[in-house]
Design goal:
3-stranded antiparallel beta sheet, Alpha-Beta Plaits, about 90 residues, 2 helices, alpha+beta
Length: about 90
């Protein structure tokens, strides 16, 4: 099952610290891709992640880890994570 985590919130006036990106790389096993988008006009979307997991509960656990990194490592950051299942051919038997 694939789930997308959309991280939104209020970014502080400082850019994200390099340590945050290093921690995200470790969390994602070194497989992080940086792109411009998918929401180029949004001021509230901070980042997103796509996870391949066994269950929705596992997706929630990964989302919790992802958002915790932002809260712990980016002083002044506040926000939330929305978890959305990404449908694929396997979902339509």
């Amino acid at each position: 099952m694939r789930y997308m985590m959309l991280l939104s919130g209020a970014s502080p006036s400082t850019p994200p610290p390099p340590e945050l990106f290093e921690a995200i790389m470790k969390l994602a096993g070194g497989q992080v891709t940086v792109t411009d988008g998918p929401f180029t006009e949004s001021k509230e979307l901070v980042s997103y992640a796509l996870y391949e997991v066994r269950s929705k509960e596992e997706a929630v656990e990964w989302a919790s880890r992802f958002i915790k990194l932002h809260r712990d490592m980016w002083e002044g950051w506040t926000g939330q994570t929305d978890i959305l299942q990404v449908m694929g051919p396997e979902n339509f038997g």
